[in-house]
Amino acid sequence: MSRKQGVLIIGGGWVSTQHINAFKNNPNAEVLAICSRTKEGARKCATEAGLAAECFDDYNKALKMSGVDIVAIGSPQHVHAEQTIAAARAGKHLLIEKPVAQSLSEMYAMREAVRTAGVKTVVSFVLRWNPLFQRLKKMSAEGAFGEIYAVETDYQSYCGDWWGGYSIGRTKAMGVSAFLLAGCHAIDALRWFAGAGEFEAATPVEVFAYSGGKRGNSTHQYNPVTNSWHDNALPLEYAGLEMAMVRFSNGVLGKVSVNFECIQPYAFPVEIFGDKGSVKDHRIWSHKFPEQKTWIELSETRPESSDVKHHPFQAEIDHLVECVVNNHESHCNLEDTIKTHEIVFAAQECYRTKVPVSLPLKV
Prior knowledge:
The strands form three sheets. This protein has a nine-stranded mixed β-sheet with strand order 16-15-14-13-7-12-11-8-17, covered by helices on one side. It has two domains: about 5-120, Rossmann fold; about 125-305 and about 340-360, Dihydrodipicolinate Reductase, domain 2, CATH 3.30.360.10. Helix 4 (about 80-90) runs parallel beside helix 5, helix 5 (about 105-115) runs antiparallel to helix 10 (about 335-355) and helix 8 (about 180-195) packs across helix 10. The protein contains ten helices and 17 strands. The chain has helices at about 15-25, 40-50, 60-65, 80-90, 105-115, 130-140, 165-170, 180-195, 315-325, 335-355; strands spanning about 5-10, 30-35, 55, 70-75, 95, 120-125, 150-155, 205-210, 220-225, 230, 240-250, 255-260, 270-275, 275-280, 285, 295, 355-360. The protein is α/β, with parallel strands linked by helices. The protein is globular, with a radius of gyration of 20 Å.
């Protein structure tokens, strides 16, 4: 049996706890080191996880540690590009949290570094491993809904200081936009369900988008956890609502939105329309069931919470380790998910030009 894959965890925050747990539970991986802004933060993560891992506060020193094969980047998004490029040049395989970069130039530089190094990557669009999404994707690939011609997805979650990352994520400099910060999950789901194969995401060729909402620079803020309001909160620096129409190379039309202003609990609506059936969240209507009189409800776990503990990180990270051990490319690698991010940046360009934007984009 081959040795376990040594793992370096980057970041000591919310999502990194799930990376650590998932790698711990994988029989072919071992967490060797944790790197955070401070050694104290890294040690705290190691202690809470029951690990005797080496702790660092210097990313470049951590990369030089012997035995590290995989780097899991769970740091704030504005350093993802720099850290990915350094890890790829060091020959490390990568788990990269979304969003992968702040700009097109950063993203394409990451792609070049990964291509040159030939390392394996998985970008953390973790909902591709959600049980309901997997069931729907398999049913779609098997023809349960016929030929797909339209998909609609939405990310609906009030973004405020109830979330620990709000002070950074709310800014244009660090968060960039609602689509980039979190709405990219809905964009990736749009591509995923628009693709014909079970492990295929559709390729976008044109985007038109609007931004809006009513929140503006308000410091009066909602907390969806406590269902309450408070004043003197830091304002969101970009539009809280974005909507986009996407045309894919296979002819499918997509509609996607992100809503950081909705006064409600977290929701992730999905609608899929084919010429032989439809999907509305966990409900299906299909030619496979000609006697059905009402919607059939699927029982698989669906995306119902923004809490990272609810997300299927174990399946995602098991997939990454399998790709590394068996030298396979992931359906969710950097190369593929750049197409998801390009829709985000195309929307930003559309707000400036007021005309449809063709893809792929150029720097």
